[in-house]
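Hi everyone,

Forwarding the result from last night's run.
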Amino acid sequence: MFKEIKALIEKEITLELRQKYALNGMLLYIVSTVYVCYLSFRLKSNHIDKITWNTLFWIILLFTAMNAIAKSFTQERYGRLLYYYTLASPVGIILSKIVYNTLLMLVLSLAGFGVYAVIMGNPVGDMGLYLLSIVLGAVGFASTLTMIAGIASKAENSATLMAILSFPVILPMLLMLLKVSKNALDGLDRSSSWDEVMMLLAIDAIVLVLSVILFPFLWRS
């Protein structure tokens, strides 16, 4: 199983490197969005409060995740999916997709935070906790949206269906991420954020288990 997942992840990385415009497009999207936020807020007033700073950052990450992960299954042609069906197990397919999208989101999230902090300023009081919230957000977005992308790929209007299905799951996760990151911005004691951190870890674990259980039925269809 581990060899199978490793081979599938290597395949995903090879395809991504072969189509460099996809990753470069996501990075360009982050930089351009951050620059628009700079023109809209910081350039005019030369000041942006912490709540607005934090909210804008997570909105940028959320839409970056939607655009980056939506293509997980839609970019695969029917013939290639049939080929995977004969070679790999459905559990290996979904786990490899989740791991790859998690790595992709970590790269995009950390790069986006670096660009955002340079252009918009860095008011973070507890950098370690804020980076932890970014990692938890990247893992949560990747695991949740990957499974939803697999479901939506079976429908004709997959982009619309993915947005509708992801909203009830992403919203509570986003609210907890906003609270943890706001505590990090204010430099509060880390113990005040452990409940939200544990809840985020629980959501990630539940999504992962449900993906392993439910995706084989979706894959056979």
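The chain has a mean pLDDT of 79.

Cheers,
N.
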